[in-house]
Amino acid sequence: MSSRWYPIYQRGNPQLRVFLPNFWMKLVRPEEKQPKNVVQFKVPTGMTNYDIQNYLEKIYKIKVIKVESNIENGKLRRAILQKYGPIVKDDDFRRAFVTLPRDQEFEFPEVCVTEEQKKRSSEDEKSSKMSGEMFKNYLKKQADRPGLPGWFSF
What is the pLDDT of residues 88-129, one digit of tens each? Predict the structure, then answer.
């Protein structure tokens, strides 16, 4: 189950072997309100419900009651922010909902809690909105000349 290379076993010289899975699981903050004992993950499409359950039980020693999952299509988007440009499709993924026992609860951890970090993030949001508006204004000015670079003016 692992693609890592290990030295060949030789008689009389037993080697320690560790088998690691080739899967990854990404913990996702839930978009909608869900019970405290349900955890949401993004996993690769090749991973089955049984694989998810074994992964959590064997590696993290978490008791899993039930696993529900569905495959979601990746988003279609333009590679460039303008009207013209190639269309790119993000990779598909499987969204897994893992139910823990009733007595266990999971809350998504708050990463930035300090007032200074909240203030800094609000300033960053304001500056990103401002730069986005400036870019939209630039695109409106260049609407009648698609495909020409900005340095080419008359």
Answer: 999 999 999 999 999 999 888 777 667 787 788 888 999 999
Tell how far CA 19 is from the center of its chain. 25
DSSP three-state, residue 132: helix
Mean pLDDT throughout 128-150? 83
**Strand residues in the chain grouped as ranges (E):** 26-27, 38-43, 66-72, 76-78, 87-89, 93-99
What does the alpha-carbon distance between residue 106 and residue 108 come to, in Å, rounded to a whole number? 7
Q: Are 59 and 22 within 8 A, CB to CB? A: no
Count the neighbouring beta carbons within 10 Å of the beta carbon of residue 52.
Answer: 22
For residue 32, the Cα-to-chain-centroid distance in whole angstroms is 17
